[in-house]
Task: structure prediction
Amino acid sequence: MTLSNDKVINQINTAFVSGWQSIKGKRSYAGVSNTHMPTNAAKNINTCSGGRNIQMYFMTPDGRVVHCLPGYWNAQDFYTQAGFAVKLGNLAFNKSISNADRNEKFLDMHLQKAHGHNYGLVEGAKLQGFDVKYVKNNTSDFTRGYKGFVQGVKLVDQVVHERMAARPFLPFEKFDAHEFTKLGIKRYKYDFGLAGKYGSSAKKK
Result:
């Protein structure tokens, strides 16, 4: 799990002040899943899966968003992204450059991440089939303009950085999470791990 890694815990305790709030039933974009109890089987999932269920925001002390990680991230990728957020936070308070130059640097840093990241992360950020169908029908920034990529769409982490690039230092209350989290279906209908259901070892009759 992302936050059970000692390296990640040390990073969070050293570089950030943490808080949380529940969005279940309170935000129209929040994801909905069928029952999955702690005793049910676990399942490995790709980077950004469950992007509607959880969003991890990195903000400056005055509440401006520098980065947002939607969904699940493995520990090493989270550690890298959190370190990147620290650099963006430092940029926010760099008084040696103008606001326009600061925003341009913000854009450049996110786009460099979007188009120059390591391929280990790329391979872990593929959309599942039902999410591919959703983004093709409901978004315009996932579609590839040329052939040769997974199922004709970008990888999720690329789109996350591209979307952040267009939102330089937005105050948290103005961050349009409803649009930002359009990364796949809202309701995950599978009962993974429940007897006789999708993902269980039981055979269907």
Remarks:
- Residues 75-92 form the longest helix (18 residues).
- Confidence is low (pLDDT under 50) at residues 199-205.
